[in-house]
Amino acid sequence: MRRKPRIPPAPLPQRDGVDPVRVKLPHDGAWATVRDHLVERLAAGPGVIDAMLRDGRIVGADGVPVAPDAPFEPGTFVWFHRDLPPEVPVPFALDVVHRDEHIVVVDKPHFLATMPRGSHVTQTALARLRTQLGIPSLGAAHRLDRLTAGLLLFTVRPEERGAYQTLFRDRRVHKEYEAVAPYDPAVPLPRTVRSHIEKDRGVIAAYEVEGAEPNSESVVELIEHRGGLGRYRLTPHTGRTHQLRVHMNALGLPILGDPVYPVVTGPVAPDDFRRPLQLLARVLEFTDPVTGAPHRFASRRTLGAWTAYDAWDQ
Question: What is the pTM of this model?
Answer without folding.
Answer: 0.92
